[in-house]
Amino acid sequence: MSSLADTPRRMADLSRDIASRGFSHIDSYAWRDLDDPDAGGSEVHADHVLRRIAHAGISITHRTSSKGPSRRFKRHDYDVIQRGSRYGIFPRVILRNMFRRRANASIVVEIWNGVPWFARLWARAPRVTIMHHIHEDMWRDSLPSALAPLGRFLEIRVAPPFYKDAPLITLAHSTRDELITRGFRPDRVHVAHPGIDDAFLAEVSLGSERLASPLLVAVGRLAPVKRFDLLVRTFAQIHASRPDAHLVIIGDGPDADRLTALVSELKLQDSVTLTGRVSREELIDTYRQAAVLVSMSHSEGWGMTITEAAASGSPCVVTDNVGHRGAVVADVTGILVGNDDVFAQSVVDLLDDTTRWSTLAAQSHSHARSFSWDRCAEQILQVIADEVRRHSDDA
């Protein structure tokens, strides 16, 4: 594996090579921006990658929807334009670019987060797509009932043929395998694992004292697809076996009031805490106190909270989905649970087994330290550079 210390130099070299072929700017497109109230892992990922590519010498304009007035500003050396409604942004971008008369000299980086941008229809320069995961059955939890079938139809049936002739980057080998089974070309699907912010990587205690009055932590947007309601009900079963256990749910979202009511209904007010959004420092502190990171999410692109918690010494018990399989080495860094009915018992068994917990905690902590945002950004820039070369050779 190449040295991380040399990453800035290699990225600068890639940037110069791209510029030598007539391309010095990237137009990136994403559904939401990092400061959107509904932002999640996809937006965090985009910021980490774009700031590093911009620092390497390529100018970037990042275009997203806006929940308020249109804005244009600079963040971490790249420009951000927030313009257009949550769903209106897609036809706005597609139609605007299809009818532009001047040749498009910007590389297009399309972040396909459920709804595609169909860049093949309008991008005349090199284009690269970043896809975290396939939404498929998530649509019924992510969109109004009238729009959900349309979103699923666009993603599964309409869009794929438009994305088989240009590079697609995903986060996990498990997701790559799924995309290939759906007809995407193996030579076009690349993997770049997300990194972990350095703040999570400090040395931590891996002692089993965390198992005394164990703290379970769950982090994410409080939305139906994350199935926090099922997690609370499952925790009631855990609590019956381990009355000393406590669950902390960190995050905000449309399900907040419903979850608060559910906690009261199950009489778990003394054992379940809904914190809302917290600072990064508070998040890290909670990870470092936690015995286990838990997630019953329906689907994930990766599950960055898993590797963040692991870096802080907390192994995980999570549902077995495509994204989680990328972030977890099964029975080495955490436990993948394929059946919701045994999730509670899986957690209780781990809490009651000091030796197993200590092994998983040490192995997950070591594994987490192998992930780097610098490496992730370099791998993505390498794919972009290869596509620029191919485009130049074919021109």
Describe the 3D structure:
With 395 residues, this protein is of the alpha/beta class. The protein folds into two domains: 215 residues, Rossmann fold; 171 residues, Rossmann fold (3-Layer(aba) Sandwich). Strands 3-4-2-1-5-6-7-8 form an eight-stranded mixed beta sheet, sandwiched between helices. Helix 7 packs across helix 12.
Give the helix tally.
Answer: 14
Q: Can you tell me the overall shape?
A: globular
Lateral strand order in the biggest sheet: 3-4-2-1-5-6-7-8
Instruction: Please identify the structural class as seen in this structure.
Output: alpha/beta
Mean pLDDT value: 91
Residue runs with pLDDT of under 50 for 5 or more positions: none
Query: Do you know the CATH architecture of the largest domain?
Result: 3-Layer(aba) Sandwich
Which percent band covers the strand fraction?
15-25%
Secondary structure layout plus pairing:
Blueprint lengths: L6 H14 L4 E5 L11 H15 L3 E6 L6 E5 L2 E5 L6 H10 L8 E6 L14 E5 L7 H4 L5 H11 L9 E3 L2 H9 L7 E3 L23 E5 L8 H14 L4 E5 L5 H10 L6 E5 L3 H10 L2 E4 L8 H8 L4 E4 L2 H6 L6 E4 L5 H9 L2 H15 L4 H22 L1
Parallel strand pairs: 1-2, 1-5, 2-4, 5-6, 6-7, 7-8, 9-10, 9-12, 10-11, 12-13, 13-14
Antiparallel strand pairs: 3-4
Helix pairs in contact: 1-14, 2-14, 7-8, 7-12, 10-13
